[in-house]
Specification:
Layout lengths: L21 E5 L6 H9 L10 E2 L2 E2 L7 E4 L11 H10 L5 H14 L15 H13 L5 E5 L7 H18 L2 E5 L3 H7 L2 E5 L7 E6 L15 H22 L6
Parallel strand pairs: 1-6, 1-7, 4-5, 5-6
Antiparallel strand pairs: 2-3, 7-8
Helix pairs in contact: 2-3, 2-4, 3-4, 4-5, 6-7
The structure holds adenosine-5'-triphosphate.
Length: 251
């Protein structure tokens, strides 16, 4: 609107995710994590700068990417199996093929016997599994995830984290995973990227996570190296979190 100052969520910044790499973005609330992810998905056109996907500048939606949001995106009037199959059918796959592939993915997410259930007959964790199958059935080369396990309880989040890691290990897509849970970021990723408090947020930290794989997203948190990494990254992150809440959390 005329006269209103322009709000710049993200300042000029640069982030490169390599093929097969699992990168988590962590930062205080409102810093611009989703903004960065939405620009990568092609859902948001950046006011400046650009997104390059496998060397090609992105215009329009990122067709190489599958996107998993915090909110359920399941259609309540369709069964779990149909919710997965529809992701292929809208791309032109014949229904019989789509159903067969959907059933394979339902098995991979541990819901092989739940295909005929409707979303309201599934738990939050089961609905997330269906959502994951719905995204992965299209075999995207890139996975963009925005607080995907946010609404789940702590144990289910960790179980979903391990499931995600196991599925990711099958073909190692490039993953960009937004979370404000530093434990989750370290448990899952190859790299944790820290954003500063907004406005004009920037990437201020980039930490390689040298924990062994395969990992269990729960057990890895007991590893002494996990604690060392956590301390190191939290030292930087806590100052940004404190800025967001306008108080100094440092002792
Ligand atoms: N459409 C919009 N119009 C104006 N401001 C917006 C819009 N979308 C986001 N913002 C602002 O941009 C900033 C970054 O928002 P964004 O959702 O990217 O942050 P985030 O780090 O993902 O937050 P959270 O962790 O709370 O989900 C916020 O201050 C938000 O209020």
């Amino acid at each position: 609107m005329k006269g209103q100052p322009v709000y710049k969520a993200v300042a000029p910044t640069s982030l490169k995710v390599r093929e097969g790499e699992f990168v988590a973005i962590v930062g205080p609330t409102g810093c611009g994590k989703s903004t960065l992810l939405n620009a990568t998905a092609g859902l948001l056109k950046p006011a400046g700068g650009h997104v390059t996907v496998f060397g090609t500048p992105l215009s329009g939606l990122n067709a190489q990417a599958g996107y998993l949001f915090q909110q359920d995106a399941l259609m309540p009037w369709k069964t779990a199996l149909d919710n997965v199959a529809i992701a292929l059918e809208i791309g032109g796959t014949r229904r019989a093929d789509a159903l067969a592939q959907a059933q394979e993915w339902m098995k991979k997410v541990g819901l092989g016997r739940f295909g005929d259930r409707y979303p309201h007959q599934l738990s939050g964790g089961q609905r997330k599994r269906v959502g994951l199958a719905q995204v992965l059935v299209r075999q995207p080369k890139i996975l963009l995830m925005d607080e995907p396990f946010g609404p789940l309880d702590a144990q289910t989040r960790q179980i979903m984290g391990t499931l995600l890691l196991n599925l990711w290990a099958l073909d190692r897509k490039a993953v960009l995973f937004v979370t404000h849970d530093l434990d989750e970021a370290i448990a899952l990723s190859d790299r944790v990227v820290i954003m500063s408090a907004g406005p004009e947020a920037r990437i201020i930290g980039d930490y390689p996570i040298d924990l062994d794989r395969p990992r269990d997203a729960a057990d890895i948190r007991l590893d002494p190296r996990f604690h060392t990494l956590h301390r190191q990254i939290w030292n930087q992150l806590k100052a940004e979190v404190a800025k967001t809440y306008g108080e100094d959390l440092a002792p």
